[in-house]
Design brief:
Radius of gyration: 33 Å
Structural class: alpha/beta
Oligomer: single chain
Shape: elongated
Order of helices and strands: HHHHEHEHEHHEHHEHEHHEHHHHHHHHH
Largest sheet: 5 strands, parallel
Number of helices: 22
Strand order of the largest sheet: 2-3-4-1-5
Distance between the termini: 97 Å
Helix content: 40-55%
C-alpha cells in the first residue's frame, strides 16, 4: 500500500499545515503565532529556559493539559508544538464531535505511525465537555503512545478531567494576557502586509483602549480591531470612538456554573469578611453583570452574616434577611438598593467567627462523648416513676433566683467545666463576654463552701 493511499496525496503534511487558514478567515485566525518567538505572554512557561519551552525545544513532551482562560493561547501553543515536533496535528472539538471520531483518529494515527513513523498530536479543545466515560476513550492510546494528547480547557482540570488521564499528563496553567502583550498583537496585525489589516491605521490611544478592555483575551482584542476597521470609513483610521463602538457588546465574564462563577462568589465572600465594601460591591456587580443570579449572593451573604459577623453584630443577620425579602418584593433594579445597603453593612460590621468555632467545638465534644447521660436534675420528669428515679431532682428554676440566674451545671459530668464559646472583645460580643464573666464568677462563688446561697459579689450585667 502506498503512503498516498493511506493519507492522501498531500501526506505527510508540512509543519506549517497546522497554521494553514483561508485568506478570508477572521483576523484572529490569520494572525495566530506560528513559532515560539512569535508567541506573546505566558513568559512563565515559554520564556527562555522556562519548562514548557525547554520541553518543546528538546522534543520531550508527552501528553499535556493546557488550562487557561479564553484567548490565552491554548490552541496556538498546541499548533506550535506540532510545528516543532514535526507531528501530524489533528484538531478535535469535544463540543462538536464524539467518541466515534476519536476512534477514527486513533486508527489513522496507528496507520500513520506504522507507515511513516510519524507521531500524531490529537488536540482536544474543551476537553472538559467530555464526560468521564468519554475521556476514558483516550487512555489506552495515550499509554500505548499511539497519540500524544493535548487537552485544552477553561475549567479546573482537577474537577473536569479524570484522574487516570491527569496522572498521565502534565498540566500547564496559562494566564490572561496583559495589556502590553495585547497591544503588541494589535500592532502586528496592523503592520503585517500578508495576514494583517491592509491600509488601516489606528491611533495609539485607540490601541491602548482595545488592549485594556479585551480582558486578557487575544481573540477578543483582534476581533474588536477587525470590527473597528470595518467602521473606519474613508480615512481608514481607527480612533477611540470607533474602538469603543467595536467593543460595545462586551460582557462581564461569569461562566455560570464553572470555576469563574465560584471564584467570583469566593471573592465576594472574602471581601465582606475582610471589611472591604468597595471590593465586595465590585465582585457582586461582576457576578450579576455576568448573568449570575442575585439570590446566590444573598445566600452567600446570609452564610457570611452568621459565620463571619455572628454575635459581634446580631443585627447583621436580620438586615440580610430583610434585604433579601425586599429584593423579592421590589425586583431589579430597585431591589439592588437594599442589596447594596446589605453589602456595605456586612463589610463594615464588626467581625467574629466565635459562633462558628463554638458549634464546631460542640460537635467535636458530642462525637467524643456520644453516650454521656443527661444529668438527672435537668431531665424531664412527666411521670411519678421518673420523679421517684430522681429525674428533675434539685433543678433550680432561674426565674426564682436572684437576677434570674441559678449557678448549676448543665453539661454532663465528663464535660463539666468545658467552654465551647469564647466571646470576642469588640462589637456586641464585648457585652456578651462581660455577661459570661459575671456568670462564671457567680458559679465560682456558689462553689465555695464559705459563700452563702447563690449571691455573688459583683453587680449583674444587663
Amino acid at each position: 500500500m502506498k503512503q498516498s493511499d493511506l493519507f492522501g496525496a498531500d501526506e505527510p503534511p508540512k509543519p506549517t499545515d497546522a497554521f494553514a487558514v483561508e485568506a478570508d478567515a477572521p483576523l484572529a485566525a490569520r494572525m495566530r503565532p506560528r513559532t515560539l518567538d512569535e508567541l506573546v505572554g505566558q513568559g512563565h512557561l515559554l520564556g527562555p529556559g522556562r519548562p514548557l519551552r525547554q520541553l518543546i525545544e528538546r522534543d520531550a513532551l508527552g501528553s499535556l493539559i493546557l488550562w487557561g482562560p479564553p484567548g490565552s493561547g491554548k490552541t496556538t501553543i498546541a499548533r506550535v508544538i506540532a510545528h516543532y515536533t514535526q507531528a501530524a496535528f489533528i484538531p478535535f472539538s469535544a463540543v462538536m464531535e464524539g467518541v466515534p471520531r476519536v476512534r477514527e483518529i486513533i486508527k489513522e494515527a496507528a496507520a500513520r505511525r506504522e507507515a511513516v513513523g510519524r507521531r500524531t498530536i490529537l488536540f482536544c479543545d474543551e476537553i472538559h465537555r467530555f464526560n468521564k466515560a468519554q475521556q476514558d476513550a483516550f487512555l489506552p492510546h495515550v499509554e500505548a503512545g499511539t497519540i500524544t494528547l493535548i487537552g485544552a480547557t477553561t475549567e479546573n482540570p482537577s474537577f473536569e478531567v479524570i484522574g487516570a488521564l491527569l496522572s498521565r499528563s502534565r498540566v500547564f496553567v496559562l494566564n490572561p494576557l496583559d495589556p502590553a502583550d495585547l497591544r503588541e498583537l494589535l500592532e502586528r496585525a496592523l503592520a503585517d502586509p500578508e495576514r494583517g489589516l491592509r491600509q488601516i491605521t489606528a491611533d495609539a490611544d485607540a490601541l491602548d483602549f482595545l488592549a485594556a478592555r479585551a480582558d486578557g483575551d487575544a481573540r477578543r482584542a483582534l476581533n474588536a480591531l477587525e470590527a473597528a476597521a470595518s467602521l473606519a470609513g474613508e480615512d481608514a483610521r481607527i480612533d477611540v470612538a470607533r474602538a469603543r463602538d467595536a467593543l460595545q457588546l462586551r460582557f462581564a465574564h461569569s461562566d455560570k456554573g464553572g470555576e469563574a462563577h465560584y471564584n467570583l462568589l469566593s471573592a465576594f465572600h472574602k471581601s465582606l469578611r475582610g471589611s472591604d465594601p468597595d471590593a465586595a460591591l465590585y465582585w457582586a456587580a461582576r457576578f450579576i453583570d455576568g448573568g449570575g443570579d442575585p439570590m446566590i449572593l444573598f445566600r452567600r451573604a446570609l452564610a457570611m452574616a452568621a459565620e463571619d459577623v455572628g454575635l459581634a453584630d446580631p443585627q447583621a443577620l436580620m438586615l440580610t434577611v430583610a434585604a433579601r425579602d425586599a429584593f423579592h418584593v421590589l425586583g431589579p433594579p430597585e431591589g439592588f438598593l437594599p442589596f447594596a445597603e446589605m453589602v456595605i453593612y456586612l463589610a463594615t460590621a464588626p467581625k467574629s467567627n466565635a459562633s462558628m468555632r463554638a458549634l464546631g467545638a460542640a460537635f467535636e465534644a458530642a462525637r467524643e462523648t456520644p453516650a454521656e447521660p443527661v444529668p438527672l436534675h435537668i431531665r424531664n420528669a412527666p411521670t411519678t416513676l421518673m420523679k421517684q428515679l430522681g429525674y428533675g431532682a434539685g433543678y433550680r428554676y432561674p426565674h426564682d433566683e436572684a437576677d434570674a440566674y441559678a449557678a448549676q451545671e448543665y453539661l454532663p459530668d465528663a464535660l463539666r467545666g468545658r467552654a465551647f464559646y469564647a466571646a470576642g472583645d469588640h462589637g456586641f460580643e464585648k457585652k456578651i463576654a462581660e455577661r459570661l464573666a459575671w456568670w462564671a464568677q457567680r458559679r465560682a462563688d456558689a462553689a465555695r463552701p464559705d459563700t452563702p446561697g447563690n449571691v455573688g459579689g459583683a453587680e449583674p450585667v444587663r
